[in-house]
Protein 1
Amino acid sequence: MLALMKTIHQTLNTTRVVDFLAPLALRLFLAPVMISAGYNKAMSFESTVAWFGNEEWGLGLPFPLVLAFLATATELVGGVLLLIGLLTRYIALPLMVTMLVAMATVHWEHGWFAITPTNPATSMAAPLAKVGFPGAEGSLKNSVEAGERLSRARAILKEHGHYDWLTEKGGFVVLNNGIEFAMSYFVMLLALFFWGGGRYLSLDYWVARRWLPPETV
């Protein structure tokens, strides 16, 4: 058994046959996310500019027209480049910047969770609160309160609405809009920045094979 484990370990650490699958998976996951985000901004560009610049109900950013255009173009073009694996490392940088801006201006005040945990017993905040992790106690309290509100909302809908029809396509949740998704995308982009687009199924690989020394590919 020990010899088998050693062989497996050595194989995993020396083979490069399938190491292209990880960056490929990240690219295929991120590409539609970025394209969709950019497309939605482009299709309602005036509203996007207004949201970027308005201080009362928007982000209150300076130069909203310029920033809205840059965000839209970065996500649209970046999504396409990720899809085909071209200039992967270079486009990962501005996409990471958009994620950081999104976290700082939109999601930061809401904490970590994108969807509020409504069951304190299974909330990630529970074990963190036990060890005194900063902010975990507040997140756990928020889970309790959110769970109470969600239970009340379900009771009202079951009594006065067509609950089975309303939940046919998915259950109701409490949207928290924290940094969870944006941070996850940032980490994926960071991995692509260091890995590149991967071998075989990215244009970066074939361009490198054509123009760079063989030992660098």
Protein 2
Amino acid sequence: MAAPPSRRRQAPFLIGLVLILAALPVGWFVFLREPPAPLPPPEPPRVATPVEVKKAVELVLSSFEGSVDVKHGEAGAWMPATKDMPLRPTDVVRTGRGSWAVVLNGEAVELRMEAETEVSVAELSDQLSEFLLNNGMATATVRGRPNVRHTFILKAKGAEAEASTAQGTFTMSNNGKGTVSVGTRDGDVKLSDKEGRYVIVRAGQQSIVRPGQGPSKPAPIPSTVFLKMEWPAAKQTKGEVVIAGRTDPGSRVMVAGASVPTDEEGRFKLTLPLNQGPNPIQVSAMGVGGAHQTEQQVLTFETPPPPKPPKPVIFKPETEGLFK
């Protein structure tokens, strides 16, 4: 039996409706869905970066004059220095009477040691140079370099004081008894003590650390050095004499070419042997600013003549009246 005409007309409509409904998910997936993010490009092959090898710190005894000795470590034996002698941490350098020496740390640091000065090497690296001024006087010049920060530290043995700078020139004196003086010629220097107290010593200023005290307030470096002598009598009858005087605290004193320590007030005293006849005695004082002052006196030693022997006593016999 044939289907009614109305059903035959509805069949294509239903088939089309089914096809449209079936195509909706496909259309959404093809046209409306957000496309996935593109995959990242493959990473280029890694190339190993060569490790930068730091240049070894080269500390050398660049130049010197007179008697200069070096020892390796505190327990080492003193040996005569040689030009361009390499130095390493724990090494010690000392200068004799009338001598000087210059130590170089590449292009970063120059340390000049005055006569009768002893310095120990504490630490060396690209960023830090640390030395110990055992006694005497030394001048440090620290040169700044682009993109390189190098800190220089000079500690004073027996005083627990230290001076540090990244660029500049300064002089430190250490009497070995707790009194330290620092004078700055260029740049800024931080002077501190073991308690953490510190001052900034700028160019043209000086500061002093005394036993049990913090750094003094920075003051202008005097253009002259105070030196007052207590000279003994010009004529001496003994083979030795006491030389005494006073200078600015922290100044370096030399008597007849020998270094003489001063106390915290700048007083000094030395017993000096005399030769027969005239003895020219020269006393000089040098401040951390470089100023000098000199006094001189001639002391004449004359050995007293030996005492004259006593006259012999002549005994006369008393015979008068015995033979009457």
Protein 3
Amino acid sequence: MHRAVCEVTASTPAGVLYGLIADASHWPLFFQPCLHVEQLSFDGSHERLRMWAAAGEEIASWVSSRRLDVGRHRVEFRQDVTAAPVESMRGVWTVTSLGDRCKVTLEHAFTVAGDDPADVARLERIIHANSRAQLVRLAWLAERWDRLDALVLSFEDTVRLKAPPELVFDFLYRADDWPDRLPHVHSMHLVEDSPGVQVMTMGSATSDGTAHDTESVRMCFPGAGRIVYKQTRTAPLLAAHTGEWSVDPDASGLDVTARHTVLLREDAIEQVLGSGATIEDARRHLREELGRASRVVLDRAAHHATSAVRVL
């Protein structure tokens, strides 16, 4: 059994820190290594999660069980389905009050198949790096908890179509074709080493013609008509950006929706938008820019699907 422990302190009430740890649905937005979380079950204290996260240069996925103890500010976890070479993994988050500050401790205990020294050393590096990144961001978030609602922006745009959902999903899935199909996308490099998990670098332009590159990891669920993603390299105004494309058919047609959730970098607002710009200015700017780009994708997906139907 190998063990790893990381700690951080923050000038924040223990309940705030515990709440950020307990609500795993926001982890992809809040914690850099975490890419996507699907809640499989929850009864108020016991929870099962399917998780995707960056593990060094790779993307790992596993299923975890968690026991939430709000009274003791503890969250215990255990991986039920592991990713090789992990044989077993368990641990605990603990929040301890220290007067006007709190300490958060993240402990891991794990075994490795065959106990190969190289695999053990690699996992120790990944666990330490990911734990440190999570704890540093946790302290950053907690110390801004009184304005966190203003720094997080979520919105969606939906179009209603009469077209085969498979054709619409195909357009969204084949993002490597976007430079030929979308006017604001000028370059794309996409790799899908594992089925349904895409790593992409996209060069695009904003409404004023400014070019910028983003990097994303996308988890694709064709059976559910969903593609969820997290940008691992964001625009300067954003600390984090997650989103989803969904295709929802019914008896009379289908809804195609683009969802965005972003975390603002408060210290970059004036640098990007000019002196005197506020959080509200940044929220309006992002709603318009991200919404505009998404609506272009939705419109072109609709055109692609309906054109294909007419050809058939």
